Amino acid sequence: MTTIDSNRLAGMFAAIADAMSADRDRLCALDGVIGDADHGIAMELGFTAARDAVAALDGGTTDPTTLLNTAAKSFLNAVGASSGPLYATAFMRGAAAVKGKVALDDADTVAVFQAMAKGIQDRGKAEPGEKTMIDAWVPAATAAGEALAAGKGLAGSLAAAAEAARAGAEATKTMIATKGRASRLGERSLGHMDPGAASAVTVIEAMRVALTG
Amino acid sequence: MQTKKIINDGNRAVDEMLEGILAAHPRHLKSVDGSPRSIIARDGPRQGKVGLVIGGGSGHEPSFLGFVGKGLADAAAIGNVFASPPPDPILECAKAADGGAGVLFMYGNYAGDVMNFDMAAEMAAMDDIEVRTVLSTDDVASALRGERQKRRGVAGNFFIFKAAGAACDRMLSFDECERIAKKANDHTFTMGVALAPCSLPQTRRPNFEIGDDEMEIGMGIHGEPGIARGKLRTADEITDEMLDRILAEMAPARGDKVAVLVNSLGSTPLMELYIMNRRVKQRLDDIGVSIHATWVGNYCTSLEMAGASITLHQLDDELQTMLDHPCDCAMFRAG
User: Model confidence at A176, in pLDDT bands (50, 70, 90)?
Assistant: First the structure.
């Protein structure tokens, strides 16, 4: 059993922000192929803002719900764009999933993860197979739930999630975009990984390392 | 290699630009106290008038805030470069533009803008401000005919916002303003061509690759790939290809009237725009369509992208009245 408190969650946002800075140019290049080349910028900006906002909270008195809502609002206001509402909704749903808890057990943390994926799906109104970040998030959430049910604990669950996200992002190369900006490309989007799915892999992997490493 | 830009800090580019704009246009524009990305008209919002809030990403100047002023938009929410503004500055614009008669949100049809403006509309509803949204979808290249609702909004915003702003300024009802805004969108058709990429201030790298001798018809104003890439051709051939697609959809009859916008995507000079406009005039003359008014210049840019767009706005008496209605904005004046 791994117990996740607010300090640990604040560390998670710092880890994601670092990962996004490192990944920024690759994501922009991916986005340049089928979009407008700014996805890496938005993700770095958003997670940097979220990291700074939650770092300013008092980890001793802030509950995970407040922390996640703070991250959501700061991400949204720093970014706008598509990723702003999508990730802000993800963190707000994650916050709602553990309302009233001070420390999260394995099931709570996986519930946050699954609520994030659901939030992204609800806000973006995308379905799997449409070549979006959903193609990484949905299989990742499913895999996390199955691994937890199989008794694999948080480390095993997030490892399964990261693995499923990677496979899902890889699969977007064979998809034709039907949602988001790339949808105007039709078949020309074939062969290219969706940048939103690629960044989802980076987020999920950074979460795994920060929460279970 | 990084592209050359006159900037201080890529991450501060938008805010520093806004400082410069407010310094240049103090008679027309101000920002909402505490919300520097919400730019409002000094003269415009008033009791009983439907408010008009526009907005979108930066990098398209003079869109969008150049069209804020009396007779046009009451406020514009400003996003990062090529990124929708978040809900908070949009909400502040809605509050500033609200005259108790409802607020229209108008912006180009992009997934990010729709999510952020919709969230702002939900927040405005909690403040008892009724918001309705009219998306612009004038980019003919961005989806098939019959799927107009999937198309992007590009330079045609100019005519679409103009019609809606006039309707609001004439104190028409919320229903009428919304109807005229939608009608203006339905009567506006744009095609673009790109010759060379732009680069974002934060990355200073070209946002797409294109051969030295190539052009791309239908490329979007954020560098989204278009419908056909080929060798660069002559101005007349390029203009013909763009007009063919526009006219096929607009299907004007002999004797119809249009307004024309030949717009630079950033670095294409007026000389080339006027050469294109010469061909537009020839082609419209040939089919007996008269030109009520023409604008040539930078109206909806993509930073320093090279290329241009052509927009035709098909006029009936009502839309002509809206187009001719006076407006006084920081970067655009009519009537």
Answer: confident
Q: Which amino acid is at A93?
A: R
pLDDT the model gives residue A28? 85
For chains A and B, count residue pairs whose Cβ atoms are closer than 8 Å: 106
Question: Is residue A174 very low, low, confident or very high in pLDDT (cuts 50, 70, 90)?
Answer: very high
What is the percent of chain A where pLDDT is above 90? 82
Residue A187's closest chain B neighbor by CA? B227
Give CA–CA dist B115/B112, Å, rounded.
Answer: 5
For residue A69, pLDDT over 90 is answered with yes
Which of A25, A77, A179 is facing B86, going by the closest CB pair? A77
A99 in B contact zone (CB under 8 Å): no
Which chain A residues touch B205 with a CB distance below 8 Å?
Answer: 25, 28, 37
Using CA atoms, how far apart are residues A74 and A86, in angstroms rounded to an integer?
13
Q: Are A177 and A191 in contact (CB under 8 A)?
A: no
Which residue in chain A is spatially nearest to B114 when comparing CA positions? A82
List CB contacts of A48: < 8 A, sequence separation 6 or more: A17, A20, A21, A78
DSSP for B196-224, written as a single string: E--B-TTT-SBSS---TTEEEET--TT--
The shortest CB-CB distance from B111 to any of A77, A78, A181 is to: A181
Per domain, the residue ranges of chain B are 10-187, 188-322
| Nearest-by-Cβ selection for B115 from A77, A82, A188 | A82
Q: Give me the pLDDT at residue B169, please.
A: 97
Q: What is the CATH number that goes with domain B10-187?
A: 3.40.50.10440
Contact A84 B208 (CB under 8 A): no
Contact B80 A85 (CB under 8 A): no
Q: Cα–Cα–Cα angle for B260, B266, B271, nearest 5°?
A: 60
* Check: complex ipTM more than 0.85: no
Note the pLDDT tens digit of each residue in A70-125. Answer: 999 999 999 999 999 999 999 999 999 999 999 999 999 999 999 999 999 999 99
Please say if the pLDDT value at position A183 is more than 70: no
Is a pLDDT exceeding 80 seen at residue A36?
no
What is the pLDDT, as a whole number, of residue B58? 97
Is B204 in the A-facing interface, judged by CB distances under 8 Å? no
- Residues of A within 8 A of B119 (CB-CB) are 85
Fold of domain B188-322: Hypothetical Protein Tm841; Chain: A;domain 3 (3.30.1180)
Q: What whole-number distance in Å separates Cα of residue A42 and Cα of residue A39? A: 5
The reported pLDDT for the residue numbered A2 is 86
Q: Can you give the pTM of this predicted structure?
A: 0.92
Domains annotated on chain A, with CATH: 6-212 (1.25.40.340)
